[in-house]
What does this fold into?
Amino acid sequence: MRLKAKAFLTGLATYVPGYDHRRPTGGTDSARYCYSVWLRHLILGRAAGTHAGVPAVVAELGPGDSIGIGLAALMCGVERYYALDLLPYSDLRQNLAIFEELVSLFRNREPLPSDAEFPLLFPKLETYEFPHALLGSSWLGATLAPRRIEEIRASIEAPHGKESRIVYRAPWSNALQICDHSLDLIYSQAVLEHIDDLAGAYRAMHRWLKPGSAMSHQIDFRCHGKADTWNGHWTYSDFAWRLVTAFGAHQASPGERIYACERNAMPLAFSLDPQPSGAPVQGPLRRGSHHQWDVCRGGSAVIAGRCYNDSQARQR
It folds into this structure.
């Protein structure tokens, strides 16, 4: 085990009273990134059969620097968007700037930004052309109508208003009341690796989702700067891992995540194993990490599950 000094000191600092955890999360400060992420989840979900069209009510875990991915969802026809974060990263001025750029991207039916622009962005697609078959002219004509665009803009400016299409809560764990069985889709982008209580998170998602609805999560299994190689953190002891990740990535393996889905009546709809992104980890693996190497031979994976009620789950 070779513990990275900077990771150790950063993790240790998080135990100091008054330490400010907030720092840029990356990605969602770009409208083109948000545009590409939402459309990738939408396209792959449609292909996998987790939803037939655009879901009506969605929630995002960990939107980060902006709610841009959710704004892209609203422009595609989502009626209500819940943004659930641990800390209040999102900024009104940035949200409005990203919103204006997203309007232009959708009105011009721009192709999705691909590997040439975002080489580390997952999930990957076979083609990055705009999905005209999914988002036709008549559909987008309605979702991008001037009145609806103004309603979305007003929701950004006043998310707590009675008529707002946006509900933003940070921290979401103790500040949000979502009605049971009210969501059509829950998604996240490189967020679930930061959640410590994985079982609790999946229980909450199962409670919020309607029977037959879906979730889609892209999970980044890389070290997040905690080791010299992308998978070197798998050699850390439990004690060392707690020190360097007091507010960082957590170690649940892909297999453990799939099990958490299944035990909460959310059978896996599809799983995309990534391409190898580095050499095998050197040294003894931390307990449970062999599952990560067996299932995920690269730095990222996508899992999606469909929600069933208890009686449906027993019949499967």
